[in-house]
Amino acid sequence: MDINISNRIGVIGSGSWATAMIKMLTDNQSEKEIYWWVRKQEDIDYIASFGHNPSYLTAVEVKIPMENISPDPKYVFDNSAIIVLNTPAAYLKDALKDLTAEDFKEKIIVSAIKGIIPDENQIVGEYLCERYQIAEDNIIVIGGPCHAEEVSQEKLSYLTFGCNDVEKAKLVARFYESRYINTIISDDTLGIEYGAVLKNIYALAGGIGHGLGFGDNFQAVLISNAIREMEYFMDNINPSGRDINASAYLGDLLVTAYSQFSRNRTFGNMIGKGYSVKSAQLEMNMVAEGYYASGCIQSIIARHQLDMPICNMVYEILYNKSPAMKEMNILAQKMN
After folding, report:
1. What CATH number did the domain enclosing 309 receive?
2. Which of these, 24, 71, 87, 206, is most buried using a 10 Å CB contact count?
3. 164-197 as b/e, with b when 16 or more CB fall inside 10 Å?
């Protein structure tokens, strides 16, 4: 079967969201070839034997040929025209460490990463443009609201595809559409990325409040203040005509703040109950992007001299070890 090179899609990452990506791509009816970078050879061996990821979304059947799954990211890059990056933001540099700008040349790069690159304090799109000389028009970002667990259950979900070149966003989106995946097209790449970073911090705040014993009434006020704080941040960093109430911003914030599947809410809840950061990370055994995002976004807030009380509260609790109840009570007096 001849497949045009533009229909060759590679996925970098093997966690729950990456596994959900594999499911979405294989359930879509468009003609394509899919390649998958799975970091551990033992996981690849397990997939070969049982047809499932042994660590994440274990009920999802892997339906791509085993010869297309490799622990070598360069193999996936060499065989793909569209590359979907789907690792935690903190691990992206390590995943790409053996690749050069030449490997990215003439490829469409899709970031499904909802985080910020530590050390550089850059969203993924900015980091890729600077490090690998990728044209902005060749970078697409995927936003929610969408949790991997609901994708695995084939519950109706929505993905937002953002790109400066909306025709490229449409091209990639069509590979994801199915009876349970609807897609939305946007040209607000920066807004989608920053929204994804901030909503994780706000979900952490909500989780901390819940762990401390604050109720749903407080949570509603917290999240309504959070969407206004997000809009204030974006208007200062990247002003545009975006509608902050759109699914990629408010919708993604709501699902991350309230869903039982939200890692960031779960992480925050543990902090509110008295767990240390380290003990919460060990018990979860999954990455809560909001923790890293909180440390990174703080430098951006300081650089632009922004007033971000919710972000500041989370940072004080996580990084300066200030008592959670003290900080939440201070925040409560500032909200309206």
Report:
1. 1.10.1040.10
2. 206
3. bbeebbebbbebbbbeebebbebebbbbbbbbbb
